[in-house]
Amino acid sequence: MEPRRCWPRVWCVLRADSRFRAGGCVLCLIIFVAAAAPFVAFHSPTAATPARQFLPPGIEHPAGTDLLGRDVWSRVVWGGRLSLAAGAVAAALTVLPGSLLGLFSGYVGGRVDSFLMRVVDMALAFPTLLLALTIVSVLGPGLTSAALAVGCAGAPRFTRIVRAATLSVRYAPFIEAARTIGCPPGRILLRHIAPFVLDTVIVLASLELGYALLNIGALSFLGLGAQPPAPEWGLMLTEGRAYLGVAPWITAVPGCAITLTVLAVNLLGDALRDALGLQARDQGNGEG
Amino acid sequence: MRRTRGLTLLALLAFTLIVRFVMHAEVVDVASADAPLSRQEATLLYGLTLSPSGIDPHVNASSELGIPLRSVYDTLVYRATGSPEASQQFVPGLAESWEISEDGLTYTFHLRRDVKFHDGTPFNAAAVQANLQRIVDPATRSQKAVFLLGPFRSVETIDEYTVAIHLFSPYAPLLDGLSQVYLGMASPQALTRWGVDYQFHQVGTGPFRFEEYVPNDHLTIVRNDEYAWGPSIHDHQGPAHLERVVFRFFTDPAGRSLALQAGDVHVMGEIPPLDAARLQEDEHFTVVPVPIPGQSLGLILNTQRPPLDDVRVRRALLFATNREEIVQAIFGGFSPPATGPLSSATFGHIEMPDTLVRFDPAEAAQLLEEAGYTDTDGDGVRDRNGQPLLLDAVLMTWGSLPEVAQLLQAQWMTVGVQLRLRTLTYPAALEAARAGDYHLIPQNYAGSDPDLLHTYYHSNSTFNWTRATDVVLDDLLERARELGDPAARAELYAQAQKRIMELVLLIPIRDPVNLNGVSTRVQGLRFDAQGWFPILHDVRLQ
After folding, report:
1. B329 and A269 in contact by Cβ < 8 A?
2. At residue A50, what are phi and psi to the nearest 5 degrees?
3. What is the Cα–Cα distance from B275 to B223, expressed in whole angstroms?
4. pLDDT tens digit string along B496-506?
5. Are residues B506 and B519 in the same domain?
6. Out of B3, B253, B423, closest to residue A242 by CB
């Protein structure tokens, strides 16, 4: 019951942290706008009206229009749903299987652990985005496969980190004690080890969301993620880049949306990490 | 704390990188190019738009390779330049004259006697024989040249300067093939010496010598001072005006007009239409639109896959397509709307009558009703027996296809047809084409002879992505390629084009037009009958 008492304390530390407040506010705002899309976007995100091509930002179209006369603001708002959801799914796909596998591998040890870690080593030899590219070319292009690919590509990294965290408590006296009194392995894992790993997971998961958003955006940018006419942020960057000289707002607005979201998520994650006192443990998460 | 900042910066950095990639990919490329330009005045810098996988004209097929190499090689004959009708004439090149036998099976060429390859080897009948034998050798794996030879049987050396080509069956487009850079005459000595590495050491007889090719970076050609055997399509005889031409690659469309305006190149191909409109207002540049003969740019319909096996559905799609709107919105009027399978710069092209091709959404809706498609569930998409009218389009990223398809999506939605888009890389799209895994797929090949219809619409052809088997069409295409008389051929091709649109085998969108951005310092730039290839021999730089 010890860990639970420290949670309000964490909250107090967090509340005083300006990064947490800034990141939290921005992220909440973005999520709120995306959720309220039908009420804040007055045009269809996909209906093409070529007669309204490349209108600059104004009262009717707050962020201008694109080549096909679609309202960029509406596309960014509706696209928020797609991009955030895909990012969340990818992050969940990284975190859940990655953590479970890491816990299992660290606890069981021995040959199983060696085998799993060699597999993870192989996966880690590829940069995350390259691995995701490979997976998505097998699955075929699409937002779902992009989320799946980014999620799967991140999982090995997570496995490695959670395994390390598991190993650090695996041989602690209280685990030995639990085993001695006949606690079943499942209970030891979930009841005694998991709480110690949980804080690592929470912090890294928040950062993972940022990476996932970026990587999915990158895949869409390369034409392997969301397919037209979906208003996904990365795809909007691609569509607009040919017209940077004529209509910079088509690229700038979704670009800012990606930057702001990732920035907010990272600020949150950093604040969480400091609050949970985890700086020393963040060894394996150096690339994105 | 330091690592913390690093991470927050990472997000910013990533975005900056994306933008940098977008805007400056080309600039980085060109910065390194400034060094070797001591002889800047006589050096033309030419921007290519795609980095070819290989540049051996006998082996590879891209148009990009022909832009530099057209000036390295001469061909036996040349196509006259000018209108599609004028360019049906062929003028002497390396062959001074030629005869075609009565049965159309033997072409005899009398060669020039004063020609030398860049490496000093004399040009003669043996050289022609060596070239043609290399092209038809299966080990060469020719992707284009061998097809230009059609039903090629053999090549025969009659004397040192006379050579005959024998065919299995009459083949009217043979001279067209022989006029193309893909059948350019290479030094037999160099071919033997370099083997598979020949593409890096090319030796021809043309007005420029091949100097250096560094893939993805540059290709340099320098003047051949001994050149004195130019065809009559050149404005002047003797050596070229330019001393050297350096070709560089600009694969990202967004950077092309910027590179031109920054002075990184003097000529740039395939400028995006909206950038071209902007460039026209700059007094230092002109926009030279060159219509490309060959296929019009459109979407091929898979006639084997339901619901497109019903001609009424196909015609409904054609009538629901507002080509003027697409062309105006996406190409700013630079690329005329197409009505049939051939672009209007192609010999034999006809304008389709209104009865076959027009924008008529009411008629489209009527046709869909007749085919049994109605919107029973009120979701805006027609359905039949519970199956929604959903079509699957495979796209590639060239030619503004994603934008075109999104407008099509909007236009077809108004008649209750839903279009799903899949953007694939070229190899993946070819795979989908082979498997028949598409309702619509883009196809666009350039070619100066209407016989290309045989390649893309004859039921025996592997490139017939329409998958249609029509005996009337097959017969027209087979007869047309065997006829010698241009007028009679044109008549057959007119019927073939109409037949293709009666069957609605494709949704034509527009004529391909290469928008070249040219610095006003460049004088005398013209393009040959193929459209893609500049005649660099006559170009001056001021």
Report:
1. no
2. -55, -25
3. 33
4. 999 999 999 99
5. no
6. B253
